[in-house]
Amino acid sequence: MSDALNPALSDAKDAKSTARDAIAETKRSFKDTASTAKAGLTDAAHKAEKALKEGAEAFRAQSRTYVDNAGQYWDEGQRYVVERVKERPVTATLAGLGVGVLLGLLLANRSNK
Question: What is residue 57's predicted lDDT score, i.e. its pLDDT?
Fold first, then answer.
């Protein structure tokens, strides 16, 4: 009977050894896959960061142009108003008073509702 158990025992030891080798290979494979995935994600994160920085710089450059233009138009509008007020101070005063009264009436009606 020991002869019959010897081959079965030998087969079991071989199966155990094969299973250990398979587990070790699976662990190595998992580590390699995780390492590759980490490197890929890191690379993708760097690319995304670079793209966002470039986009922000482009937006900043475009918005600077709009801000400069808006400032220029504001200055021109301010000069225009000052010139008209200097030309006709009484008319400008009455126009300002009329706008103030209209706004006051609108706000008073709104608060009564």
Answer: 92
Structure tokens at 23: 């587990």
At residue 113, the 3 state secondary structure works out as: coil
Write the CB contacts of 84 (distance below 8 Å, at least 6 apart in sequence).
92
Return phi, psi of residue 88, to 5°.
Answer: -135, 80
Supply the DSSP symbol for 1. Answer: -
* Mean pLDDT value across residues 94-100: 94
Share of the chain above pLDDT 70, in %: 95
The DSSP output letter for 88 is -
* CB-side neighbour CA atoms (13 Å) of 60: 6
Name the token pair of 105.
């009436």
H-helix segments, the chain = 2-87, 89-112
Residues 6+ apart with CB under 8 A from 52: none
Spatial separation of the C-alpha atoms in residues 85 and 92, rounded to whole Å: 6
Length of the chain: 113
